[in-house]
Write a structure and sequence with these properties.
204 residues; mainly beta; 13-stranded mixed β-sheet; 3 helices; 13 strands; 12% helix; 40% strand; globular
Length: 204
């Protein structure tokens, strides 16, 4: 399980293109658009590419950029090693014209619980001094190799990913997922968290 402590104000300040009043469905294909590259490609309900990750190095690179179709970097995610501990830092680019300070999150594994069989990670969102109410999300693996869900601290679902079904009901491979994002949730931030989840589980 992964604990996420984001900013309630961040989602409200995001541009309308990243927050919708209705549930949105995306298709995540764990393949890069670059031949022989690593990464993933994300399509919206109309089959248009909206996000992509092109990792030109080997899997689990120390630095990964979440981009839109045109290659504009939306989040930069960096893996940092400190002694035997590892953390992931995600920086949101300021050119999204948000009304808050630069959004950043940090991910650390909870080493105290590893011995108990709990592989959770703590994700803390920082970079804003105007937090009226901090929210808490949890990313929890579901049955199967790829499925997971993101819930708020009160148990309300924010997003869920699972293996995609074709129009004829055929279950596709482990590298093709359906991601459903609930209304009024910043799906750019959700995709950044999905990226970290993929790095942690060696999918990217």
């Amino acid at each position: 399980m992964i604990k996420v402590h984001p900013l309630a104000a961040a989602a409200a300040a995001a541009t309308s293109s990243y927050v919708s009043s209705r549930r949105e469905t995306f298709t995540i294909w764990m393949k890069s658009l670059v031949m022989q590259g690593n990464g993933c490609t994300v399509y919206n309900e109309n089959g248009e590419i909206v996000y992509r990750i092109d990792n030109y190095d080997e899997k689990c690179s120390n630095e990964v950029d979440l981009m839109d179709l045109q290659g504009k970097v939306l989040f930069t995610i960096i893996r940092k090693n400190q002694w035997c501990f590892r953390r992931w830092v995600g920086d949101r680019c300021n050119d999204l014209n948000l009304n808050t300070e630069k959004l950043q999150f940090q991910v650390r594994k909870n080493f105290r619980n590893i011995l108990k069989g709990d592989l959770s990670c703590q994700v803390i969102i920082i970079g804003c001094d105007t937090i009226d109410q901090a929210s808490c999300y949890t990313i929890k693996s579901l049955a199967g190799k790829s499925a997971f869900k993101i819930t708020e601290d009160n148990g309300k679902l924010a997003a869920e990913a699972k293996r995609k079904l074709s129009s004829s009901g055929v279950l596709l491979g482990e590298d093709v997922l359906t991601l459903e994002v609930e209304p009024n949730v910043d799906h750019c931030l959700i995709m950044a968290l999905v990226t970290v989840y993929g790095l942690i589980h060696h999918r990217l």
